[in-house]
């Protein structure tokens, strides 16, 4: 007797620019996998602004709150109005404190490291300089001020998330990245808190690295890293650096995890210059979907999806132009789907 898969309803944000194209491709692949997923579509970004006059409508927030899981294509934040960033606003409203960004070498990509890179950046997502609290420009326009706030609570829970992730996934080392030699209060508090957490995980190796040295080491010898945990602004920079090591943002998924909700996304932009041309690479969103399946407990399905993406890249089957192929968004997705 065949067991019917458990039903999960997820909120789907189709996004702006190339967002709807890559979302259609990703859902096509997921639908071939018999996952028992149901989709509840919601609007955000420019699509929502045009429909209801809001970037983040209440109905969209209610959908995410109810379903607790969202798959999101890139959103465009209009310049000069609304939030400074829709993504930052979503993280703030749902307290999505852990930003999880894997970077893994893939075959047949335009990459400095076609093999050997397999690391995860765990970035604190709700505080620090990146949030932009207390921004002020003097009346004469000569002086700008920004408040950087780091808390023990925020540092403790992101460090614990990183060590739990290492233990859960069989990874052996967590690197705590900081600038406590200069930023002795904020980065110092983060480092001290992370050290205290590390002491509770004797089975996981912990080392510390100043952020500028970390960036140099990533470029020179990325295979030394397993999991990196760091503060918000440093994590934003490091995670994009890691994406550059393995072929760019077209292969970079991201998860934003909180206690009560989680949003999985392609971290690249909405690329309006190629929107509607059918040439966008859906891999980042598909890899984010694999993170979502992990989160839902479908570990074997997530691995099958990743394996199908790798097999399609190895076969150079219907790859999109950014990967050196002559395929399009949906033909690439269909090539992945037939291998799932």
From TrEMBL:
GO terms for biological process: isocitrate metabolic process; tricarboxylic acid cycle. Its EC number is 1.1.1.41. InterPro entries: IsoCit/isopropylmalate_DH_CS, IsoPropMal-DH-like_dom. GO terms for molecular function: isocitrate dehydrogenase (NAD+) activity; magnesium ion binding; NAD binding. The keyword Cell membrane does not apply. It comes from the Bacteria. Residues 9-336 form the Isopropylmalate dehydrogenase-like domain. Pfam families: Iso_dh (PF00180). It is an enzyme of class 1 (oxidoreductase). Keywords: Oxidoreductase. Belongs to the isocitrate and isopropylmalate dehydrogenases family. NCBIfam families: PRK08997.1 (NF006529). This is Isocitrate dehydrogenase. It comes from Noviluteimonas gilva.
């Amino acid at each position: 007797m065949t067991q019917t898969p458990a039903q999960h309803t997820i909120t789907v944000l189709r996004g702006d620019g190339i967002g709807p194209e890559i979302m259609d491709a990703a859902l096509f692949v997921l639908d071939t996998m018999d996952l028992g997923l149901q989709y509840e579509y919601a609007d955000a970004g420019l699509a929502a602004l045009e429909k209801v006059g809001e970037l983040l409508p209440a109905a969209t927030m209610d959908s995410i709150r109810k379903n607790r899981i969202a798959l999101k294509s890139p959103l465009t934040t209009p310049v000069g109005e609304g939030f400074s960033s829709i993504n930052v606003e979503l993280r703030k409203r749902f307290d999505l404190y852990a930003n999880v960004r894997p970077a893994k070498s893939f075959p047949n990509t335009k990459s400095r490291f076609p093999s050997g890179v397999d690391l995860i950046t765990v970035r604190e997502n709700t505080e620090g300089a990146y949030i932009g609290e207390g921004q002020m420009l003097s009346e004469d326009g000569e002086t700008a001020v920004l408040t950087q706030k780091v808390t023990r609570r925020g540092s403790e829970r992101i460090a614990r998330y990183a060590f739990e992730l290492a233990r859960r996934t069989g990874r052996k080392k967590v690197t705590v990245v900081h600038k406590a030699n200069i930023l002795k209060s904020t980065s110092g508090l983060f480092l001290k808190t992370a050290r205290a957490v590390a002491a509770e995980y004797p089975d996981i190796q912990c080392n510390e690295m100043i952020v500028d040295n970390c960036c140099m080491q990533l470029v020179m010898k990325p295979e030394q890293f397993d999991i990196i945990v760091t503060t918000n602004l440093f994590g934003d920079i490091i995670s994009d650096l890691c994406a550059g090591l393995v072929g760019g943002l077209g292969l970079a998924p991201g998860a934003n995890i909180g206690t009560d909700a989680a949003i999985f996304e392609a971290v690249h932009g909405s690329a309006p210059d190629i929107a509607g041309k059918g040439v966008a690479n859906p891999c980042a969103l598909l890899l984010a979907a694999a993170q979502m399946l992990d989160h839902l407990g479908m570990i074997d399905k997530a691995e099958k999806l990743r394996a199908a993406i790798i097999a399609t890249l190895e076969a150079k089957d219907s790859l999109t132009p950014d990967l050196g192929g002559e395929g399009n968004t949906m033909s690439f997705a269909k090539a992945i789907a037939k291998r799932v």
